[in-house]
Specification:
There is one protein chain. This protein has one domain: Alpha-Beta Complex (Spore Coat Polysaccharide Biosynthesis Protein SpsA, Chain A). 32% of the residues lie in helices and 23% in strands. It is built from eleven helices and 13 strands. Strands 1, 4, 5, 6, 8, 9, 10, 11 and 12 form a nine-stranded mixed β-sheet that branches. Strands 2-3 form a two-stranded antiparallel ribbon. A two-stranded antiparallel ribbon has the order 7-13. Helix 5 packs across helix 9 and helix 10 crosses helix 11. The protein is globular. The N and C termini lie far apart (70 Å). 39% of the residues are buried.
């Protein structure tokens, strides 16, 4: 079977970001910078690296700065041009490559991740697509979605990015049970949204990366609101596994939960250490502040 090309990435960015108040009172959490790029730009770059040509942002009324970030700014470009700051001019002109299209769809009510994905149906069409949660920043040699795209080409079925989490964190995630088929690929047999530790089928959590077939839209259209009075993507996937296989990929890389303050700080430190411009000096600074204080 010839694998279907994945051309579209969906970014659910309508959440309120309450864990980062007051910073997110007027600025979206997806615009929080890790060194010198906002979280949503890392997400976009990862999706484009995996082949996405159409970026669908599911937004809310408070997220206009995301749209502005990926739009042109002629006034700023002019200032940088006349002042001779060519490198900065190139950076802001190339945030989005010319062949990539951005689409913005307003989620009128905060009805959960499942509803956000359903909002993208008209833009996605009858094709497989990426879903990328910008909160989960994954540092890897091969971008996580590119790893998943290559894996998808083996079976043309929905695929979930997963990793093992500590028992005390199980209640924060969608948790899967799997079985290994004759092909050696692990297939989802059960998925539960944010279970208590005693009810969890494993400690294998879905962490912000999905490749979904368009059949998911039928499931999203038929499920009822559940946990948090929201439409849960997990419930739709639970229904989908009855009709077609859904696989998992334990990706290579380090995930930073940038929806939490500690995870965000860890990501900032790691990306700061790896930054071409400031990495060496930042490393020296950290060494100095972590040395035992002498009296």
């Amino acid at each position: 079977m010839i694998p279907k090309k994945i051309r579209t990435a969906v970014f659910p960015v309508a959440g309120r970001g309450t864990r980062f108040l007051p910073a997110t009172k007027v600025s979206p959490k997806e615009m929080l910078p890790v060194v010198d790029k906002p979280l949503i730009q890392y997400a976009v770059e990862e999706s484009i690296a995996a082949g996405a040509e159409k970026l669908v942002f599911i937004t809310s009324s408070s997220k206009e700065s995301i749209e502005n970030h990926f739009d042109r700014n002629p006034e700023l470009e002019h200032v940088l041009s006349v002042s001779g700051q060519k490198s900065l001019l190139s950076i802001i002109r190339n945030i989005i490559p010319p062949h990539v299209t951005c689409i913005y769809i307003r989620q009128e009510e905060p009805l959960g991740l499942g509803h956000a994905v359903l909002c993208a149906q008209s833009a996605v069409g009858n094709e497989p697509f990426f879903v990328h949660l910008a909160d989960d920043l994954i540092n890897s040699e091969i971008p996580c979605l590119e790893q998943m795209r290559k894996h998808f080409e083996l079976h043309n079925s929905s695929l979930l990015g997963v990793e093992h989490v500590h028992d005390e964190d199980i209640h924060k995630y969608g948790i899967v049970a799997t079985e290994v088929g004759s092909s050696g690929i692990s297939r989802v047999t059960k998925i539960v949204e944010k279970p208590a530790r005693k009810d969890a089928p494993s400690n294998l959590a879905v962490v912000g990366r999905y490749i979904l077939t368009p059949e998911i839209f039928k499931k999203l259209s038929s499920i009822k609101v559940s946990a948090g009075n929201e439409l849960q993507l997990t419930d739709a996937i639970s229904s989908l596994i009855n009709d077609e296989p859904v696989y998992i990929l334990p990706f290579d890389g380090t995930r930073y939960d940038c929806g939490s303050k500690l995870g965000y700080l860890k990501a900032t430190v790691q990306y700061g250490l790896e930054h071409a411009e400031i990495g060496v000096k930042f490393s020296e600074y950290l060494k100095n502040i972590t040395k035992p204080q002498t009296k």
